[in-house]
Predict the 3D structure of the following.
Amino acid sequence: MDIVHSGSTVLASFVASSVECVEALTIVLAVGLVRGWRSALAGAGAGGMLLVVLVMVLGPGLRHVPLASLQIAIGILLVLFGMRWLRKAVLRAAGIIPLHDEAAAFSHEAEALSGTQGKTRWDAVGIVTSFKAVVIEGIEVVFIVIALGAVGTALVPASLGAIAAAVMVSSIGLLLHRPLARVPENTLKFAVGIMLSAFGTYWLGEGYGLPWPGADFAILGLMAGFAAAALAGLRLIRQAPQPQRF
Amino acid sequence: MQILTTIGREFLGLFVADARFTGALAAWIAIVAMISPFHRPENGVEAVLLFAGFAAILVENLVHVASER
C-alpha cells in the first residue's frame, strides 16, 4: 500500500472519527454527570465493543466480494456519504443552516435525562442512552473504516485512525468533564466531506474501469477539485441575496 | 426493537440528504455506468467527467437551496 493511499486513509479516518466521537462524548458526558459515571461508561463501553465486532466481521468479509463490484458499491456509498457531509458543511458555513452547537446539545441532553430518579449504582436509562449515542455516532465511523479499509486493503490504517481519534477525544473529554464545544466541527466536516467524496469518486471510476490521470495521485487532484467546487458554491451563495441567516 | 429501528433509520440517513441532491447524484452515477462499457479512452477524460458531474451537481444544489431561502 503506497503512502498516498495509506496516509490519506489514516487522515480521513482520524478526522471523521474525531467529529463523531465529539458528538458521542457530549451525550456520554451528559449521562455521566446526570445519571452516574458507572452507567455512562458501561453503556459507552458496550457500544464501543459492538462497533469493534462489526468492523472485525464486516471488514475482512468484504474481501470475498469481487474487486470491481466492491469498488463500485463502496464508491457509490462514499460519494453519497461524503457529498452529504460536504453539502451540509457548506450550507452551515454560509449560514443557511445553523452550526452544530455541542454546548447546547449537552444542556438539552442533561435536561432530558434529569428526573426524579437519583444516581443509582446501575441506571438503565443512563446505560441505554450512552449505548445508543456511541452506536449511532459510531455507525458512521464503522462505515468509513470499512469503506476506506476494504477497498484499498487498508483496514489496519483506517482502524488505527479511528482508534486514535476515539482515544484522543475521550481522554480530553473525560479529563475536562465538559463537551468539546470549541472543536471546529464544521471545518472538520468540510475536510472529511472533501476526502470521502474524492475517495468515493476514485473507487467508482476504478470500478467502472476508467483510467485516472496520474493514477493514485488522482485522489489528491480530486480532493483539490471538490474543495474548489465547494468553495465556489459557498462564494455563489454569499453573493446571492440572503433573506435569512443564523 | 426501537433501538434497531433508530439505528436503521440513522444508517439510511447517512447516505440520503436532500432527495433532489441524492437523486441527481444517483442519476449521474447511473449515466456513467451505462456509457462506460462502450467507451474506453486512455487519456482519463471520462474519469474527469465523472468528477465534473459530481462537482456540478454540488454547486447547482447549493445555489438552488440558497435561492429558495
User: Anything to note?
Assistant: The helical segments of chain B are 2-13, 19-35, 45-68. The mean pLDDT of chain B is 84. The radius of gyration of chain B is 16 Å.
